[in-house]
């Protein structure tokens, strides 16, 4: 028997080569899977989210929007921290509103107290008639400081530039001067003659009406102009100051022509009165407004109520002090004549100004200013002249009534014209 021995398979045998290739492929695939698992552990796949947009209505001025494609825990923590800090900062920066509104309303009440001036003037008149001792303490020595305080209030709310602009209107100043010392004396002579010739009143009463028409403009007209047209207040002050300064010559001359008696007016006393009542207070207010604006702003809201109180005293005191003359048998007739005299003066000043300055851009404000200037005069000065230079006390009755009527009518016009301006 012949044995045939097979030679051992070498590396190049086809069967051995196939097994080796299959084993190599399996090891390679296993190694690839292990690498893929490691990659998945260390780098997890990101979650794809749609684009998100949302808003949080914390306040109308604070809105946030978030837009992102992928959100991680770290990024969400940063976003939350920034959102909290922004919200806290917004609320911390918002000032409280309620206290500020209360403060503004309180100041507005003080500033608008001038609107009650006609009512307070009427109330002081009735109080002086019913209970005169309520005003008799306000004697003549308080008049100059009281009127000076009103002029100080006007100066605080004005500037030097306003007065310079006032001097640039000589035609308006001349018109105011003409109303004071031409139109008004004519009206005084007419109504004084009517009182004696038609109503049969004593001659001293007619002389008292004429004396009222001979004096200069009243400082209350400046304050009335300031309440209605603040920009016209410097012009009104210039008119009143010029008429008051020249009254030391014009008033005695007019009294000689109308009444027939030359009044020895104290020139030095009238100049001193002008300085105390007009020049010094207005200058002090202007300087305070120019160099100490903070102090000026602090005291300005309190000036209107104080001015209302001072005006009430200036109206009620002359009536209370001269109550016996006012309540005389012919007091009602004198009252009606004085009302007619002032009413005609107010109307004449208003319409004559409209005719002369009809082309002026501020004709309405100018009409109101000259109406105050013509219809309101220094009845307190007329009362002082009557008590000093006339022996008959009846001469002082028309000036005492004029002080009250002039103020009531003037500040009633303030209320009417101020309301009409607000409606426009």
From TrEMBL:
Keyword entries, A-Z: Chloroplast, Membrane, Plastid, Transit peptide, Transmembrane, Transmembrane helix, Transport
Transmembrane segments annotated in the record for this chain: 116-136, 142-160, 181-201, 237-259, 271-289, 301-321, 333-357, 396-418
Membrane topology label: Multi-pass membrane protein
Compartment(s) where it occurs, according to its Swiss-Prot or TrEMBL record: Membrane; Plastid, Chloroplast envelope
Annotated GO CC locations: chloroplast envelope; membrane
Family annotation (Pfam families): SBF
InterPro entries: BilAc:Na_symport/Acr3, Bilac:Na_transpt, Na+/solute_symporter_sf
Signal peptide: none
Keyword Transit peptide recorded: yes
Gene3D superfamilies xref list: 1.20.1530.20
UniProt main location, coarse: membrane
Similarity-based family: Belongs to the bile acid:sodium symporter (BASS) (TC 2.A.28) family.
Designated name of the protein: Uncharacterized protein
Provenance organism: Malus baccata
